C-alpha cells in the first residue's frame, strides 16, 4: 500500500515536470527598464513635466528625476519657480539620456549618460536628444550646497 502511494507520487511529479516542459511558452511583455519604473521606498512628487521620486538615506535625500525630451528649465519650470535660473545644485549620476547646462557667463556643459553630474546653482538646463534624461541626485534640502561642498553659484577659480 505504502509502496503504491510512493510510485504514484513519483509519477505525478514526473508528469508535472513534463507538463511544465511542454507547456507553451507564454510570450511575456518586455520587462520595463528599471531606470523608468516606480522606485521602491520612494515617494512620487512631480514638478511640472518632471517626474520625481524621492527617498531618504541617512541625512540625505536620494532622488530620481526623469526629464522628458524637449524639456527646458527656462520654458517649463521658470514660470512656476519664478527665479531667473534654477538655483539648485544637482549632484549625482546621469543614468540615461543627455543634458545641456547653461550658466549666465556663457559656459555650457553637456552631460551624456552614464556620467557623474555636479551642476552649480544658477543655471538653465535642457534635455538633449529624443530620450528622457534620468538623473539620480543626492541632496540635503536647504543645506545641499554646504553639505556637498558645492559653490554657491557658478564661478571660475
Ligand atoms: Zn563659466
Task: Describe the SSE topology.
Elements: H1 2-22, E1 43-44, E2 51-57, E3 60-67, H2 73-76, H3 78-81, E4 90-96, E5 98-102, E6 108-112, E7 115-119, E8 124-128, E9 133-139, H4 144-148
Antiparallel strand pairs: 1-2, 2-3, 3-9, 4-7, 4-9, 5-6, 5-8
Biased composition (Basic residues): 17-29
Protein name: Cupin domain-containing protein
Region (Disordered): 11-33
Task: Tell me what you see in this structure.
Residues 11-33 are annotated as: Disordered. Residues 17-29 have a biased composition (Basic residues). This is Cupin domain-containing protein. There is one protein chain. The chain has a domain at 43-148: Sandwich (Jelly Rolls). 22% of the residues lie in helices and 32% in strands. The protein has helices at 2-22, 73-76, 78-81, 144-148; strands spanning 43-44, 51-57, 60-67, 90-96, 98-102, 108-112, 115-119, 124-128, 133-139. The strands form 2 sheets. The protein has a 6-stranded antiparallel β-sheet. Strand 2 and strand 3 (60-67) form a beta hairpin. The radius of gyration is 25 Å and the shape is globular. The structure holds zinc ion (ZN). Zinc ion (ZN) binds at residues 103, 105, 107, 154, 156.
Q: Could you give me the name of the CATH homologous superfamily of the domain at 43-148?
A: Jelly Rolls
Low-confidence stretches: none
Helix-and-strand structural type: alpha+beta
Order of helices and strands: HEEEHHEEEEEEH
- Global morphology: globular
Number of strands: 9
What would you say about this model in short?
This is Cupin domain-containing protein. The protein is an alpha+beta fold.
